[in-house]
């Protein structure tokens, strides 16, 4: 068999293997240790982490993982350093999803409560492929952004920058974005507009691009450049429609921009109605988001009541549904996602 | 499809597919390329020559390689068959790479027949290359269109258990491809059948899973075939499975991405052909989702570049780690090198496709247009101009961008883009369509001269206009002249059109319009000839109803008019068309009735002359018989006139009743009836008619006018003609008696009658006069009661109208009715001077307030916030009409204290907000103005929001924000009735931010505007003084202050400030205390000023002097 084919088949085998097991650490030399998920809790009161004695247990503080193997009727405990881990397989952490939901619902404190343990846990191997540290950090940034506490965000970003050795362009980009968001909050809108415009041409991550457009749109709106703000916000649903978590902000921003563009001279464009349409869509499609609450405030009373009635019809209000049936964007490569987990 | 699919779009699709084929190398050629160099040959002269030959093949130095292979063939002639077979295999391979299919065919057949053991273990320990050779031969056959031998060979490969599994898988994939290729020249049915066959073959490939690259390749092929067959769901599902197994290789990334686009295209096409709206929308939405999910150029490039870099790094590492490679390592290196090359090929091919991103934006834009999301489509197409101006199909993008602009109502911008398009892309396919759009926008806006200009410009400048478009443009030009009532030009254009386009689609219309041009020029002979020609050419023509109506008008228009013929034609028309449902005919019904009315009025008017003659004869002929004759004639004529007038009234009323869709006819007949009916005292008929018209649509902008007419007629109904008749009869009855009684008094006086008789006669006169007055009073009382009853009824109607919309916050007309009602009630209130005794039976303010509560049905609408707010608003306005500012303030404060902005209408928000601001209560008014700014920016009260909020920011010393608000209002033209206030606020904000030059310009501009002369002029002069003072120009400041209090003393707010300013300057900076004292004395002598805060300050200053 040709080597290439062999390696493909190995990869395929690995994919199949990971799907059937849970989280695991891969050490130098390819050794694989299944480990317990400290975030998975049982149903006892108070709940305790589910622990499988056959799996390894990670100690972030000690920087080790300990596993007990039964060999010939004897339990043998072996310990390995976390620094020896070359990749991590961690398919899903419910707390992370929960934190993202809290952020979108406008409950940043709850989001921080959920996300902090994840960041702490993955801190020991933050740059190891498959680590959820960066993803969790971004959720934390979003939560802090919602809190609008610049001092805390500043400290957190400083810490992130300290950890940036240039090996993760994604981290560097996200720090730049967060700094831009800070500047926007400080009212440095002209700088934000120009820097965001520049960054947009250099980035290719749809998530970062969607965020950049939202930040830029916000600054354009603040400087009353309504047409440009509309054009910027609408780029999110137009080009980054698959980034559903950013749609509420973009739709709300676009609705505000349309309001700003409205004037007796543009009456025939019925901009207020268009603005209200975006707000109604936002409330109906993302009923539990913070932006939906904002949208309700912006809608005229009658429309708001109608929109609330529509939203009430959506049964599963706890989950933010997609605006439309959109497939996920295809993954470009394995570097920036958790493909290694498969 | 709302947007016509242009050929550009089709070309765009083709271009994408071309790229797809270019960047995705098929498996078979790669297989031939991928054959490794000999590994087992020893490094002797022969091996050296062999390796050199392999290098030449890799470097595409094919002639040299062939020469070497020829030499090698001779040298290995005595060696084993494996060695000979290897040389033969490479010769075949070289011909294949040279695309010399005939020689490759021969060479491969030789290899396969002559060397049953193939290359043995020379090239690959486990592969004798026979499988590869067979697959390559299939490819060679395919390239020569030798389908059947290719398929036979593949069948053999698929069924032969000795063939390696990977080759068997490839054989299935290749079979599917050949089947498809073979059907290309066949019919549609054969093609479809072939695709079905391909599905069957490819399912064999994917049936065993997608774990191997060969299986995934087959799977990708199957995705493509599914897409072609319209089985998009299956394609998407399989694609998702393949993506999940993806290894991240560049070819997989690129291919997966293009497949996503292809699936999107398939969805889009399915959407175009779907008939059901819901299905259509769903398909477009799915297409959009696929396009949005496609990776952008930068992402694909980054991924591919990264893969190339990684592959290069791997290769470098192996080479570095193995300075003296073993044969196995050499093989590994060669393979890695080949893979790297293929990655690089994909990279460079992808980089060549500069239009990639633009095509995605283009597709997204099209989907959004179809989904009726024009604003988003606008953004998508704009992205192309901003980020891919060099897009090869940019003309198509322009076209759809123009359509999006039209959809969102940006017509001027659309026209500018049309012009830009026509100038930039004179040869583009959409030129004709854009040329028509350019003019049609102006035409739709009824800017006909501009439209004609655009059409002529297009005719003169656009080179590639197709004949059909040219015809359309010529016709549109004629239509524009026609609509612009430029009859002569229209007629000439239509004449020209009819001559030029003998078989035109618009010939019938042109012929009809041509006659109409004569008609509107009043040339009835030519009109008749034109219409006769039309009726002859089109006896069942589309415009026949109108032509017959016009023929009737012609009869009426000729001199002398043929009135009976006109009426006959009209009645015949009504007989034939009155029940028609055709819109244009329905619109014509009131016009025909109107024509009958006009004809009847004409007859009636013409009778006036005869009546006048009869009247004259009656008066000039004393002879009784003659007198009786003329009297009878006059009466007959008058009766006849009355008959025609009544017929005319009936016809006009019929016209009005059928005029719902023809506002011009409706307005005309209502005007005519307004002249006829009230004069005849037929107010009830007038009222009923207006009521009927009002009830058609209460939301119609004109409905308020109709309602006012209803109320006016109702009120007039009270003053019935019989009261005048009764009064006249009474007066007539008494006049003879009074005359006789007065004569008796005169006679007695003349004959020196007895005083007692004179007194008795005078008393009789007095008695008669008293009786007359008493009887007239009875009539008048009845009249007054009737008028009051009518007015009450009118108020009831108004009340019903207001009550209908009082609960609807969005009905802006409601406030207008409330104001109308308040004004009417205010007029009923009997006003008395302060201190004067009030008549206890008089209608008071309290009565008016009670009545307004009743009429607005506030009790019934207790639960409606907006109804209650409108109640307070009405009472506030009532107080304003009655000049009671305290009460007005009381009610407005009630609104501001109890209502949130969102509970009020823009009118109330604006007026109450303004009132509260004037009272210095900025907190609530700020919320109101803010709400207007956010929610009612296009309402007629939007300017109140800007003006009020800017004023508040100025009060709060937030000058920058105040300036921004003013600038926004001015820039966007949201100034309307508040322009003066906004500019004044702006000027003060500029002054406060020390921008004195700009501020001065603004103040001077306001001060010199005639329409604004008054308080703001005083304010501007005072502020000009303030600015001079702040700059240390004391003399100039004093001059401005003086002008303020001397020229504008009645505006105490400003004159008090100006007095104080001048006094202070004299007392301090100018050290002229005497003048200062004089100014203060003068200031305090003014009644309007002496109690102002400035007066208090002036007294303090005076005391210090």
What does this structure look like?
The complex is a heterodimer of chains A (342) and B (1105). Chain A is mainly alpha-helical. Helices cover 55% and strands 9% of the residues of chain A. Chain A has a three-stranded antiparallel sheet, with no helix packed on it. Mean pLDDT of chain A is 77; it is low at 1-21 and 315-342. Chain B is mainly α. Chain B has 50 helices and no strands. The longest helix of chain B is centred in the C-terminal third of the chain and has 51 residues, at 755-805. Mean pLDDT of chain B is 86; it is low at 1-42. Chains A and B meet through helix 1, helix 9 and helix 11 of A and helix 12, helix 13, helix 14, helix 15 and helix 16 of B.
Distance between the ends of chain B: 87 Å
- Residue-averaged pLDDT of chain B: 86
Radius of gyration of chain B: 48 Å
Shape annotation of chain B: elongated
Helix content of chain A: 40-55%
One letter per element, helices H and strands E, the order of chain A comes to HEEEEEEHHHHHHHHHHHH
Roughly what is the average pLDDT of chain A, rounded to an integer?
A: 77
The greatest interface between two protein chains, and residues involved on each side, is: A-B, 56 and 67 residues
Number of domains of chain A: 2
What is CATH's topology name of the largest domain in chain A?
A: Serine Threonine Protein Phosphatase 5, Tetratricopeptide repeat
Derived structural class of chain A: mainly alpha
Q: What is the CATH superfamily classification of the largest domain in chain A?
A: Tetratricopeptide repeat domain
Main beta sheet of chain B: strand number and arrangement? Answer: none
The shape of chain A is elongated
- Sequence of strands across the biggest β-sheet of chain A: 2-1-6
The helix-and-strand class of chain B reads: mainly alpha
* CATH architecture label name of the largest domain in chain A: Alpha Horseshoe
Low-confidence stretches of chain B: 1-42
Strand share of the residues of chain B?
under 5%
């Amino acid at each position: 068999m040709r080597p290439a084919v062999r390696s493909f088949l190995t990869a395929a085998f690995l994919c199949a293997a990971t799907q059937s097991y849970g989280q695991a650490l891969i050490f130098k030399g390819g050794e694989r240790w299944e480990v317990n998920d400290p975030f998975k809790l049982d149903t006892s009161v108070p709940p305790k982490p589910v622990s499988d004695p056959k799996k390894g247990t990670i100690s972030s503080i000690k920087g080790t993982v300990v596993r007990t193997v039964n060999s010939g009727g004897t339990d043998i405990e072996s310990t390995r350093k976390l620094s020896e881990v070359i990749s991590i397989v961690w398919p899903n952490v419910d707390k992370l999803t929960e934190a993202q939901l809290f952020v979108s619902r406008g409950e940043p404190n709850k989001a921080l409560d959920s996300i902090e343990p994840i960041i702490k846990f993955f801190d020991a191997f933050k740059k190891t492929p498959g680590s959820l540290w960066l993803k969790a950090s971004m959720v934390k940034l979003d939560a802090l952004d919602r809190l609008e506490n610049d001092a805390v965000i500043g400290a957190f970003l400083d810490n992130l920058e300290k950890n940036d050795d240039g090996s993760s362009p994604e981290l560097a980009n996200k720090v730049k974005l967060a700094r831009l968001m800070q500047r926007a909050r400080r009212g440095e809108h002209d700088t934000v507009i120009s820097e965001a415009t520049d960054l947009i041409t250099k980035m290719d991550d749809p998530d970062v691009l969607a965020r950049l457009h939202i930040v830029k749109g916000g600054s354009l709106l603040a400087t009353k450049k309504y047409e440009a703000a509309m054009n910027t916000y609408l780029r999110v649903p137009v080009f980054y429609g698959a980034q559903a978590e950013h749609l509420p902000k973009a739709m709300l921003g676009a609705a505000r921009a349309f309001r700003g563009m409205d004037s007796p001279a543009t009456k025939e464009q019925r901009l207020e109605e268009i603005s209200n349409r975006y707000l109604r869509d936002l409330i109906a499609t993302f009923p539990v988001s913070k932006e939906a609450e904002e949208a309700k405030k912006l809608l005229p009373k009658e429309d708001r009541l109608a929109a609330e009635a529509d939203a009430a019809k959506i049964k599963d209000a706890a989950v933010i549904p997609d605006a439309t049936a959109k497939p996920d964007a295809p993954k470009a490569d394995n570097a920036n996602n958790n493909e290694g987990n498969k | 499809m709302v947007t016509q699919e242009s050929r550009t779009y089709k070309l765009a699709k083709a271009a994408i597919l071309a790229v797809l084929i270019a960047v995705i190398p098929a498996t078979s050629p790669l297989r031939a390329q991928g054959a490794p160099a000999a590994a087992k040959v020893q490094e002797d002269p022969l091996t050296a020559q062999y390796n050199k030959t392999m290098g030449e093949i890799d470097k595409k130095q094919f002639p040299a390689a062939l020469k070497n292979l020829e030499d090698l063939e001779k040298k290995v002639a005595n060696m084993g068959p494996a060695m000979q077979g290897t040389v033969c295999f490479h010769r075949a391979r070289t011909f294949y790479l040279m695309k010399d299919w005939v020689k490759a065919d021969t060479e491969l057949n030789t290899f396969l027949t002559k060397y049953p053991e193939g290359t043995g273990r020379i090239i690959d320990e486990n592969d004798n290359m026979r499988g590869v050779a067979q697959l390559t031969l299939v490819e060679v056959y395919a390239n020569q269109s030798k389908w059947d031998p290719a398929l036979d060979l593949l069948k053999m490969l698929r069924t032969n258990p000795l063939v390696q599994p990977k080759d068997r898988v490839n054989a299935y994939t290749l079979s599917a491809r050949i089947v498809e290729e073979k059907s290309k020249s066949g019919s549609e049915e054969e093609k479809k059948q072939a695709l079905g066959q391909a599905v069957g073959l490819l399912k064999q490939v994917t049936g065993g899973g997608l774990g191997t690259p060969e299986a995934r390749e087959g799977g990708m092929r199957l995705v493509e075939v599914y897409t072609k067959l319209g089985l998009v769901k299956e394609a998407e599902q399989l694609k998702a499975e393949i993506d999940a197994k993806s290894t991240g290789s560049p070819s997989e990334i690129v291919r997966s991405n293009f497949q996503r686009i292809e699936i999107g295209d398939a969805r889009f096409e399915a959407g175009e052909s779907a008939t059901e709206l819901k299905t259509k929308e769903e398909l477009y939405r799915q297409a959009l989702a696929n396009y949005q999910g496609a990776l952008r150029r930068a992402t694909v490039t980054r991924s591919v570049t990264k893969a190339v870099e990684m592959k290069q790094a791997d290769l470098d590492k192996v080479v570095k780690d193995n300075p003296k490679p073993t044969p196995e390592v050499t093989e590994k290196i060669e393979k890695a090198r080949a893979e790297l090359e293929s990655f690089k090929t994909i990279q460079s091919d992808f980089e060549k496709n500069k239009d990639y991103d633009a095509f995605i934006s283009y597709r997204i834009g099209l989907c959004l247009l179809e989904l009726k999301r024009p604003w988003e489509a606008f953004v998508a197409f704009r992205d192309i101009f901003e980020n891919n101006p060099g897009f090869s199909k940019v003309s198509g993008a322009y076209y759809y961008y123009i359509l999006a602009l039209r959809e969102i109502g940006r017509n001027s911008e659309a026209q500018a883009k049309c012009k830009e398009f026509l100038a930039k892309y004179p040869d583009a396919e959409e030129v004709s369509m854009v040329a028509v759009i350019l003019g049609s926008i102006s035409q739709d806006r009824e800017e006909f001269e501009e439209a004609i200009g655009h059409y002529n410009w297009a005719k003169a400048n656009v080179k590639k206009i197709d004949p059909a478009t040219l015809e359309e443009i010529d016709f549109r030009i004629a239509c524009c002249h026609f609509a612009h009532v430029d009859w002569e030009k229209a007629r000439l254009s239509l004449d020209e059109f009819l001559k030029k386009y003998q078989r035109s689609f618009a010939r019938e219309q042109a012929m009809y319009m041509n006659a109409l041009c004569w008609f509107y020029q009043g040339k009835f002979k030519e009109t008749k000839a034109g219409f006769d020609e039309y009726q002859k050419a089109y006896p069942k023509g589309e415009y026949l109803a109108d032509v017959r109506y016009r023929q009737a008008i012609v009869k009426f228009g000729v001199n002398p008019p043929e009135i009976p013929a006109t009426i006959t034609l009209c009645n015949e028309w009504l007989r034939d068309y009155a029940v028609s449902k055709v819109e244009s005919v329905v619109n014509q019904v009131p016009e025909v009735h109107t024509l009958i009315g006009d004809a009847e009025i004409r007859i009636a008017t013409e009778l006036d002359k005869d009546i006048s003659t009869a009247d004259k004869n009656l008066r000039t002929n004393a002879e009784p018989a003659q007198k009786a004759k003329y009297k009878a004639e006059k009466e007959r004529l008058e009766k006849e006139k009355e008959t025609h007038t009544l017929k005319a009234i009936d016809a006009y009323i019929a016209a009005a009743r059928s005029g719902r869709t023809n506002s011009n006819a409706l307005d005309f007949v209502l005007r005519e009836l307004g002249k006829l009916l009230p004069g005849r005292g037929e107010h009830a008929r007038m009222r009923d008619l207006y009521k009927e018209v009002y009830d058609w649509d209460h939301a119609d902008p004109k409905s308020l006018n109709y309602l006012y007419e209803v109320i006016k007629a109702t009120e007039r109904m009270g003053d019935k003609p019989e009261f005048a008749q009764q009064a006249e009869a009474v007066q007539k009855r008494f006049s003879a008696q009074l005359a006789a009684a007065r004569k008796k008094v005169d006679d007695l006086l003349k004959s020196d009658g007895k005083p007692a008789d004179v007194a008795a006669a005078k008393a009789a006169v007095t008695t008669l006069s008293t009786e007359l007055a008493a009887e007239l009073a009875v009539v008048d009382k009845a009249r007054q009661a009737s008028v009051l009853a009518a007015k009450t009824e009118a108020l009831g109607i108004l009340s019903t109208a207001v009550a209908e919309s009082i609960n609807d916050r969005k009905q802006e007309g409601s406030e207008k009715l409330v104001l109308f009602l308040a004004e009417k009630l205010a007029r009923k209130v009997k006003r008395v001077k302060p201190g004067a005794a009030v008549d206890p039976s008089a209608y008071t303010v309290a009565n008016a307030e009670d009545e307004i509560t009743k009429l607005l049905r506030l009790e019934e609408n207790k639960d409606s916030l907006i109804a209650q707010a409108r109640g307070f608003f009405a009472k506030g306005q009532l107080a304003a009409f009655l000049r009671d500012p305290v009460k007005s303030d009381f009610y407005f404060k009630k609104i501001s204290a109890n209502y949130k902005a969102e509970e009020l209408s823009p009118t109330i928000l604006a007026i109450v907000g303004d009132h509260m601001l004037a009272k210095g209560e900025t907190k609530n008014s700020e919320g109101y103005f803010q709400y207007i700014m956010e929610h009612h920016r296009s309402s007629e009260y939007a300017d109140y929001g800007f003006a009020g909020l800017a004023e508040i920011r100025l009060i709060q010393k937030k000058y920058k924000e105040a300036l921004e608000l003013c600038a926004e209002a001015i820039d966007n033209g949201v100034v309307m009735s508040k322009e003066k206030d906004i500019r004044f606020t702006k000027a003060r904000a500029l002054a406060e931010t020390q921008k004195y030059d700009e501020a001065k310009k603004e103040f001077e501009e306001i001060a010199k505007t005639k329409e604004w002369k008054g308080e703001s002029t005083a304010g501007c002069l005072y502020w000009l003084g303030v600015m001079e003072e702040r700059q240390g120009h004391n003399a100039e400041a004093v001059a401005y202050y003086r002008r303020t209090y001397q020229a504008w003393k009645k505006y105490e707010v400003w004159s008090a400030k100006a007095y104080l300013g001048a006094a202070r300057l004299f007392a301090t900076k100018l050290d002229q205390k005497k003048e200062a004292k004089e100014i203060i004395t003068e200031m305090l002598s003014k009644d309007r000023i002496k109690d102002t805060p400035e007066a208090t300050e002036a007294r303090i200053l005076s005391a210090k002097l």
